[in-house]
# Entry
Amino acid sequence: MALKPTIYKVNLQLSDMNKHCYESLSLTVAQHPSETLTRMMVRVLVYGLNYHRDLSFTKGLSATDEPELWQVSPSGEVENWIELGQVSPERLRKGVSRAQQISLYAYGSETEIWWQKHQQAITQLPKVNVWQLPAAQLEPLEAMVKRTMDLSLMITDDTLMLSSDDQHCEVTLQQLS
# Structure
């Protein structure tokens, strides 16, 4: 019998100073059985960072032909294809052929090594923007996880500040390309 995802409810108070966007969001986030809590929380961060009414979580790790998140217009066009982690240039090429914009948020302890290996191939792809989320700054995310979470995300310039009742995490985005 296959393991089922764990479901989390997230009430997210979003204050994006860059876009002048202030929203109260109710999200249902499914944690894939092979997904870490940190990765799931990175998905929530990236959702808030890219918030748009047409943005949605996909099947994620369960699907090879979909990104982690995507913004799909009412007419069915993929406007933003969003990937997480240290994905291959081949995976990003799938997004290039299907979306107007591709956003990659790389994170993990070996991001620098991955970037050195794939930088040339990725920067040659059109429509691709790559950011790094420093691994050390993501460590507090796991302590925030509860089955039902009340979180606040404030975005100012390249800084993401995520808070719960008793935890705080500050992440500085670093644009790679």
